[in-house]
Amino acid sequence: MTRSLPALLRQYRNKREWSLSIVADQSGTSAQHLSEIESGKVDARLSSIERIAKTLGLEVMLVPVEHVVAIRTHIKNGRSIQLLTHGERYEDE
């Protein structure tokens, strides 16, 4: 099951046991706006998502579709990811 980006931001914030105010202050937004983003009530700008993610120790990335399954599998299994340059194929260990 794929979770929405707002739900993942809330999950990571809760995992760190940080309040809305802490993350909002560190990411340059208001607690109210962060709450609205996390609940999906507003469609946040990418720059806001990037700042919030960075505050939570996350990075927003675009992943080529052909690598999504391999990356999700590695993350699920707690394994490291070998980055490939454009045109290379992923091969599992």
Shape: globular
Q: If classified by CATH, what would the architecture of the largest domain be?
A: Orthogonal Bundle
Fourth CATH level, the homologous superfamily of the largest domain: lambda repressor-like DNA-binding domains
State the end-to-end CA separation. 25 Å
**Percent of residues in helical segments?**
40-55%
How is the biggest beta sheet arranged? none
Q: How many β strands by DSSP?
A: 0
Strand portion: under 5%
* Structural class by SSE content: mainly alpha
Q: Quick check: average pLDDT?
A: 86
Count of helix runs:
5
How many structural domains in the coordinates? 2
Poorly predicted runs: none
Q: What is the fold-level CATH name, i.e. the topology of the largest domain?
A: 434 Repressor (Amino-terminal Domain)
Fold and architecture overview:
This protein is mainly alpha-helical. It has 2 domains: 5-55, lambda repressor-like DNA-binding domains (434 Repressor (Amino-terminal Domain), Orthogonal Bundle); 61-93, no CATH class. It is built from 5 helices and no strands. Helix 2 (20-27) crosses helix 3 (31-38) and helix 2 (20-27) packs across helix 4.
